[in-house]
Automatic annotation (TrEMBL):
Belongs to the ABC transporter superfamily. ABCG family. Eye pigment precursor importer (TC 3.A.1.204) subfamily. GO terms for cellular component: cytoplasmic vesicle membrane; plasma membrane. It is found in: Membrane. Residues 75-325 form the ABC transporter domain. This is Protein white. PANTHER family: ABC TRANSPORTER G FAMILY MEMBER 28, PROTEIN WHITE. PROSITE patterns: ABC_TRANSPORTER_1, ABC_TRANSPORTER_2.
Amino acid sequence: MNNEEKIPLFSSNGYGDVDQGNDNSSSESSGSFRVPFYGTVTSSQFGIPLRPIPVEERITYSWNSINVFADTATAESRNFCLCCCSNGEYENLQKKHLVKNVNGVARPGELLAILGSSGAGKTTLLNALTFRSSKNISVTGTRCVNGNPVHSTALTSISAYVQQADMFIGTLTVREHLTFQALVRMDRHLKYDQRIARVEEVISEMSLNKCENTCIGVPGRLKGLSGGEQKRLSFASEMLTNPSLMFCDEPTSGLDSFMALNVVQILKQMAHTGKTVICTIHQPSSELYAMFDKLLLMAEGRIAFLGTPEEADIFFRELDAPCPKNYNPADYFIQLLAIVPDNEESCRHAVNMICDKYERSLTGMEVTLESSTKVGDFLKNTETELWLNGTSNGRKSPYKASWCAQFRAVLWRSWLSILKEPLLVRVRLLQTILVSLILGSIYYGQVVNQDGVMNINGVLFIFLTNLTFQNVFAVINVFSAELPLFLREHKNGMYRTDVYFLGKTIAEIPFFVFLPLVFISICYFLIGLNSEMPRFFVACGIVVLVANAATSFGYLISCLSSSVSMALSIGPPLIMPFLLFGGFFLNIDSIPIYFEWLSYFSWFKYGNEALLINQWQNMTDIQCDENSRNCPRNGHVVLEMYNFKEDDFFLDIYAMVGLILFFRLAAFFVLLRRTYKDQ
Ligand SMILES: Nc1ncnc2c1ncn2[C@@H]1O[C@H](COP(=O)(O)OP(=O)(O)OP(=O)(O)O)[C@@H](O)[C@H]1O
């Protein structure tokens, strides 16, 4: 091919060369394929050719008698039906049959596209094939890899699933994101250098070199990758382990026609390397349609056809419903199989007739036979079994990386995402300095007399309030905002819940030590608190403990909330009782007996007592007016006014350490429960 023949649409975008189409059959064997209007695309269209799948690792994925039911009954309707419905009505109310007795086979080297009108059951089927159905869904039937029945954990470790919605930590760059993925997804025996080499390779394979150091982007806040680049990054993440089986849900949704073509070309190219690729596609253009090796047409949860586009053409011709000339076959089939409102009865009749015909057709029967083929009929069944055992069935754990490797990677990413928000770090520091200066100047130079006692006790309680609100609200969004990403990555077998929780919380510890220290260092001497240096250091320790108890409580609220707005709404009312039991607004001895248990969880109470003991313990002489009766003459009297006991100082310290651990553990178990609930 000479330069004049190059199609600028592709070559000008850095995707390499596109051959003008010659003979289709010869190009197939040489690793290239025809794209209508664009000619034949060779593997050089991508940065570098994709890594081929070794023959012994290629996968024929089959599914037999797949039925999917949804439990649609609400608690109210169930209760109503228990008293007033017949048995049949109750069954119908409980279960909706979404996918009906579906069989199918996808072979290595094939790009199989699942098509159908909206609501036909494409996503439901794909979720059933990938063991990712939602909670109210039950699936029956077998799913086999080379004839071996496969389970969720084994399938997760040998396949990849590119979901419709891309989810990333938007502040990371493409390279950082892929490095993290390589650290937790690739085999535990690989060295760091080998992982990084694979990252480089995948960046080139997916033509991401141009944007490798670009931030991925946060919608509405940080401009980053284009939609097409984000989709290629999703593919790149899945390609790191070079899986033999790929599932993609609506990979072209939200992309323009050029980007959609680009994405399907990637899928096609993956299939060329020996992968088995199964995807759902919504309304493909005729260019995309021509690139599918196999079609699976769905209607009303049934299969209307499974075979090559040419076979589909013949099948519908034989049904006396041929696709008109110059018509996009995908549009035609989707319209033919759609249930049109106001004409539902006859549409359903036509759909059922087509599905029945397909089941009785030679193609349909062949698929049914092949999908029910079990171990023994496959040449390499023993190898497959060994390979499946080696990948995960034998180990039971879905995780590729060891606990330590997962922890290191999650900690690194969490730390990186904090550093990537320098503005936030600066604002938090500035806020701390500003509040400390304001308090320092308002309460400047307190004298130890009757008024001074009141002011000092007041400002010490303000320390606690400020540290609490500042720190609770600094972390309240940590888990609630990242929950969908965490659940997806956790389900993908990337890291454990405890690793994620520890990694996230440990990465933030430096801030919750450093900022309280900055705060107290500025205002302590400005206010004129107890001037003995050891007392200053003890006060530093107490504020760090208070800040961390509040932080732990913030994590608990964050894990309890399903969204940031919910966390922000429930945060203040939950803090209020703990604040009231702090001993400043309500004397400790006046707490109602039925609330006493709650006061044991109040870090305000322990922090206030510890700070006051530290401040007043050694004060033997407080200046009092001769006539004043209520003036405390020394520190012991001040503490007695609040019913605080000097002997309780260490108890307060231990209680705060205990609360830090208790709230964190509670937060972790809430997060753990969410991961189980979501499965
Ligand atoms: N968890 C569920 N509970 C109850 N019904 C469900 C559930 N998931 C899907 N359905 C129903 O199953 C049918 C098929 O839904 P599905 O999402 O698979 O369709 P689809 O072909 O992927 O459509 P689209 O192209 O619009 O995404 C729909 O009628 C939908 O309402």
